[in-house]
Amino acid sequence: MARVAACIGLDSFGWRLILIGQAWSGSWGGVAVIVEAVVRCGVLLLTFFCVFRAIAFVSSIIRVVRQNV
Q1: CA-CA distances (angstroms) from residue 14 to 1, 18, 28, 35, 36?
Q2: Domain ranges for the chain
Q3: Which of 14, 34, 54, 67 is the most core-located residue (most Cβ within 10 A)?
Q4: What b/e readout covers 24-61, taking b as 16+ CB neighbours within 10 angstroms?
Q5: Whole-number pLDDT of residue 62
């Protein structure tokens, strides 16, 4: 049974799907690798989301300050 994990990676060409495959004989090994990849991708996407929200929040504060000055 082969295990394949998908994760979103950033390279010089932009976003692309990276597939990681490795031969595995155990049944739980593939599940563990897929869960690990999903968690890593989730953390990556959550980090980008939080950064973009923070940038939007700061820019809205700057807009309000400029309007009141």
Answers
A1: 31, 12, 32, 24, 22
A2: 2-68
A3: 34
A4: beeeeebeebbeebeeebeeeeeeeeeeeeeeeeeeee
A5: 92
- 54, two tokens: 């923070």
For 31-36, the CB contacts below 8 A with 24+ separation are 33/3, 33/5, 34/3, 34/4, 34/5, 34/6, 36/5
Q: What is the pLDDT of residues 10-53, one digit of tens each?
A: 444 444 444 444 444 555 556 666 777 777 777 788 888 888 88
Choice between 69 and 22, residue whose per-residue pLDDT is larger: 69
What the block records as the tokens of 23 is 């031969």
pLDDT value of position 28:
54
Contacts (Cβ under 8 Å, ≥6 apart) of 19: 4, 5, 6
